[in-house]
Write a structure and sequence with these properties.
This protein is mainly α. The protein has two domains: 198 residues, Clc chloride channel (Orthogonal Bundle), CATH 1.10.3080; 196 residues, Orthogonal Bundle (Clc chloride channel), CATH 1.10.3080. Helix content is 72%, strand content 0%. The protein has 17 helices and no strands. The chain is globular and about 60 Å long. The chain starts with a helix and ends in a 20-residue tail after the last helix.
Length: 436
């Protein structure tokens, strides 16, 4: 009997720890879903306000957009420098480190990022809200684990970030795929259960309050086998290469800026210049590039004629916005660029369903940028409730992943994560004094 006494407290402690973790995951996932919904509503309001101002005063973006870029860049540097950019590189960096910088997933940084992303959308910036939701999702999940005194491990960050993707797109399976492809280092059984639980709860919370909606509306598309055999390789090769070109252009532009004496030491001036580029492209394209790009992408999927400039114009606007360093993601803008590329495919295959060709373009370009083919396919499948194109989308995505890697060897988010990794300490010089 005395031998059992040490064992019972140990088992009881383990059970209490498990329940704390489960409670923290449940509350964190529900909160992520709620925050994602509020973020989405605020983002929509910001975009519609900007569009209303532009409709009333056509010249307004020439002043408002650069001014908001400057304000966002200044506030980011003053309030939370860890809130810059997408948010996904921050969590990748945190997951990689044994002792990560806790500011990368603090609530202060997370909610600052949401606020500044909404402000950026008020200026017509080409940003998405999915990347920021990943960072704030990880922050919320960590906060609840600390509140419940549960252990905070890498899996907590991954679960929170994946739940953010799930709630932002209303695509639970895509959240799981994203966790596997982008965030996780080693995907073990306990981590799988934690991630799947958080992702599903976050998605259900958002779905329960916003309704059982599909992000891009419901589609029912298909392609003949003969068309698939030609269109999928073309879409994969060209779209993936274009996505890789975006990654390469962004990474090389950042290097050039850092090497510039003028822009490298004056980030506010860089933001101003990028703001002028975004304003100019937006005005020249008739407003196609403002905001996330959700509306033109959805219109293209449903067969509306958007025009051939959506792809290249959104490409430039997203590149300039990302280079500026202001908070905001590239998920939704990349899907919009892909939709523009998909419209080009409809010119090559005029007899094919427009929505199907646009989806091929979207999955190809998105995969080329993010290099996560499984996530790309599942996002589009869930976001349109269309499983008829699952196989052609997978073929396209796999080809696009290879094509993107040929153009840009570095995976974009992982390369950007280096900005948030601790600097390597110089090794001490070896003692070259002769032995005595």
């Amino acid at each position: 009997m005395s031998r059992l006494r040490p064992i019972i407290p140990q088992r009881l402690s383990a059970e209490v720890g498990d329940w704390r973790r489960r409670l923290a995951t449940l509350l964190g996932a529900v909160s992520i879903g709620l925050v994602a919904l509020v973020f989405a509503k605020a983002s929509d309001l910001a975009i519609h306000t900007f569009e209303a101002l532009t409709a009333r005063w056509m010249w307004m973006p020439a002043i408002l957009t650069p001014a908001i870029f400057v304000l966002c860049a200044w506030l980011t540097r003053q309030v939370a420098s860890e809130a810059t950019g997408s948010g996904i590189p921050q969590i990748i960096a945190a997951v990689r480190q044994e002792k990560p910088n806790e500011k990368l997933f603090s609530l202060h940084v997370g909610f600052t990022k949401i606020s500044l992303t909404v402000l950026a959308l008020l200026g017509g910036a080409s940003v998405g809200r999915e990347g920021p939701t990943v960072q704030v999702g990880a922050a919320i999940m960590v906060a609840f684990h600390r509140w419940s005194k549960a252990a905070v491990r890498r899996g907590v960050l991954i679960a929170g970030g994946a739940a953010g993707v799930s709630a932002a797109f209303n695509t639970p399976l895509a959240g799981i795929a994203f966790a596997i492809e982008e965030l996780a280092i080693a995907y073990e059984q306990k981590l799988a259960a934690l991630v799947m639980g958080a992702v599903i709860i976050g998605g259900i919370t958002a779905q329960g309050l916003a309704g059982n909606y599909t992000y891009f509306g419901t589609l029912d598309t298909s392609l003949p086998l003969g068309t698939v055999l030609i269109a999928a390789p073309i879409a994969g090769l060209v779209g993936g290469a274009l996505g890789g070109l975006f990654s390469q252009a962004l990474l090389r532009s950042r290097e050039a800026v850092r090497g510039s004496k003028l822009l490298g030491s004056h980030p506010i001036l860089l933001a101003l210049a990028c703001g002028f580029v975004v304003a100019g492209v937006g005005l020249a394209s008739g407003g196609l590039t403002w905001g996330t790009g959700y509306e033109p992408a959805k219109a293209a999927l449903h067969g509306e004629a958007i025009g051939g400039w959506l792809g290249p114009a959104k490409f430039v606007a997203t590149l300039a916005t990302s280079l500026s360093g202001i908070p905001g993601g590239i998920f939704a803008p990349s899907l919009a660029v892909g939709a523009g590329f998909g419209q080009w495919l409809t010119w090559l295959f005029p007899d094919a369903q427009v929505g199907a060709m646009v989806m091929l373009g979207m999955v190809a370009y998105f995969t080329g940028v993010v290099r996560a083919p499984l996530t790309a396919v599942i996002i589009l499948t869930e976001a349109t409730n269309d499983i008829g194109l699952m196989l052609p989308l997978f073929v396209t995505a796999l080809i696009a992943d290879w094509a993107g890697a040929m153009v840009s060897r570095e995976r974009l988010y992982h390369a950007l994560a280096q900005d948030f990794m601790p600097e390597a300490k110089d090794e001490p010089e070896p003692d070259r004094r002769p032995a005595t």
